[in-house]
Design brief:
With 194 residues, this protein is α+β, with helices and mostly antiparallel strands. The chain has helices spanning 2-31, 59-70, 118-126, 135-165, 170-192, and strands spanning 43-50, 75-76, 80-81, 87-93, 96-102, 108-115. Strands 1, 2, 3, 4, 5 and 6 form a 6-stranded antiparallel beta sheet that branches. Strand 4 (87-93) and strand 5 (96-102) form a beta hairpin.
């Protein structure tokens, strides 16, 4: 059993290393926005075009059709219906955003394409969440889920290995108590902070 747990601990550590490094790099960019190498310009382009979607009334189906017909990459956001009958549809991926406004008659669209600089692209990677952005996007989110499970397995196997190899457990239990106590205190503080 000990050898089996050791192998699990090793492989979980290798999986975690990849994503922890990625989260360190993308998180560092969020905390330190003045890195000269990553500074750049955000470019925006607006295009108007005739587009016949008059046979579609459901905003979600309209959003799917717009993305499909215009071949827009990225994850679909929930469509917004404006007071004047127009609908706004947003499709995003790290580094790029498309906002499409469909006219009230569904006969034309305005496409606003935003291309981000390197810094904003890295921040977009840091904030990826939820399934539903296409095959590659879903694979990425699945890998993030597996990373979360790996963190749990890495911790549990680490505790097991420590307990089996250490003669004195008092310091280990103290560290575990302090670690869990700090985490619980932080969560409670942030949940109830003024």
């Amino acid at each position: 059993m000990y050898e089996w747990v050791r192998k699990i601990h090793l492989y979980m550590g290798i999986i975690l290393l990849t994503f922890v490094v990625m989260y360190f790099v993308t998180g560092y960019v969020i905390i330190h926005p003045d890195i000269p190498l990553l500074k750049g310009e955000q470019t925006k382009n607006t295009t108007r075009m005739a587009f016949d979607l008059s046979d579609i009334s459901d905003p979600y189906e309209l959003s799917r059709q717009v993305q499909s017909k215009l071949e827009l990459p990225g994850k679909r956001a929930t469509p917004r219906i404006l007071d004047d009958g127009r609908t706004k549809h947003q499709y995003t991926r790290p580094g790029e955003k498309f906002q499409v406004t469909v006219s009230a008659l569904h006969d034309s669209v305005v496409i606003e394409h935003t291309q981000d600089d390197a810094r904003r692209t890295l921040i977009g990677m840091h904030r990826l969440h939820k399934y539903g952005g296409g095959f590659v996007y879903n694979i990425w989110v699945l890998l993030l889920d597996l990373t979360s499970l790996s963190m749990i397995a890495f911790s549990l196997t680490g505790i097991y290995l420590w307990y089996k190899t250490s003669q004195k457990h008092r310091l280990g239990w103290l560290m575990l108590f302090v670690g869990y106590g700090y985490t619980i205190a932080t969560v409670l503080y942030l949940a109830h902070a003024p």
